[in-house]
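*** Protein under study ***
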Amino acid sequence: MRLKEALSVMSMASPYAVSTERSASKSSLHQQIKDYLYIEMPIEVDVDKQLSKMAAGSKEVFFLCGSSGDGKSELLTKLKKKYSSRIKFHLDATHSFAPSQNAIQTLDIVFGEYMNGNYPLVVGINTGMLLNYAQEGTNKYFKEAIRGYLYGEAETEKVTFISFEHYPKFYINEDGYTADFAQKFLERLTAKQDNLIRQLLDKDIKENTDRESKRIQANFALLSIPEVQKVIIELLFKARLMRDQFLTARALLDFVYSLIAGPGYLFDNLFAGGDNELANKLVDFDPAHIRTKSIDAFVIEKDLNLTGSEFATFQTSLSQIGIEPLLSSRSYLRLFYVLKEASFANDYHTRYREDFSENLIEQYVQIYQLHRDFNNSSEYKNALKPFYNKLLRTAIRKYNNRNAPLLDKGHYLIKELNGYQLVTELEVKADYKNIKNHPPKNSAYFTACLNVEGESLTIPVSLNLLKLVQSIKDGYRPNKHDKNTVVLLDELIEDISKVANKVKTLKIIKGDTSIGIKKVDEDEFEVSGI
């Protein structure tokens, strides 16, 4: 069997993409490969533990919830073999028993049989289908149980829910961010020892020397480099933070298959888009679009064939792992990017490492950790000062005063009419006392807490917003392309304006004229500067 065919078990188009109750032959090479690639996840341990407590004849129900492609069918198919003698399984609540039935009607039948029976029941179900059944189902007992779970109402006795949503594929820990499932999968796929796929690769190298086979072999060699795996995981984390892209098991396997068996080399396939949902999100992060002095110099040198002997040596080393000379400088830039953390050949690619640095992600993770672990100590307060005082507060003031850039520090524009600016001075600072009340719920954002003239305000900070406030601080003015992120700033500015309207001292400014107005009593104002 060729390597490409062996790896096709990972493809979304493969009949092995979703586990069913078919009687798959354990001797099938495809099934052996799939079994080898299977990664046990923390949710499996918890589900197994839950099912082990469900006794034969007991009236208990367990729902395994999540989204399409996250591994529900795979997990429940495996556990059904272990517990089917005493537990009834309905593996996929999106399926029906007959063409004349829909999934809701099928669930009505499953639930009705359970109500009249004497056995525990396990159901694999998408969160969307849970919502549909709560609205359209006919079994009142289960509708109430599902509503209680979805809307955080009273729990139903003997009905348990576990959701993949509570087991994120990315997690920010003490050392940075981790993607345990993705990392373990890539490590197992490319393991040097006791790896059935590695054996097939060695056989493929000996028997198949056509251009496509050599390209696939080269892609596998690149993917086997730990530092390349790290860059890929970094990109997937970036897609999660900036494009709200969730990582499911099925999407990851299909994505990795497209990297290895796609039409180009791995580094080009990585940013080529296509049918895979993960690949489509990575197109926006193509390093070939980065422009720096050194990158522009390389592009010119490559186009004019003036790259020199060190680059020629680097190309020779690439050919030894099956990568032919590339036609486009863009392809070389992508190659330099995926190798940026690795040592390869004469390390020609490392001269562009700084051009590809991901300082924004590192900054986000650090600030996220400080908010998550905040303990009100002076150490944490000092660590957060650069974010609140130098970055966030500066960006808020610049964005608020974008039509009045000459206002003094600490002054905020409230309104402008006929050339007159209504301005007030506000004290905006970190609200350290409130940070503990807003612990991050997931890696997608943390909550920044501000104190404006004694009032507590908050804003959810995602990687996109952090990037935007950094750009605003550096002089950037948001435009229509930023509308999905800038709306968060607009909401905060609106809240700040409400606080500003309560301040007792205002200024009216036009040109060099500045008039101060101070409210000294309910009906008395003090005017200065006239």
Remarks:
- Residues 378-400 form the longest helix (23 residues).
- Residues 42-166 form a domain with the Rossmann fold fold (CATH 3.40.50).
- The mean pLDDT is 92.
- The chain has three domains: 42-166, 208-359, 378-528.
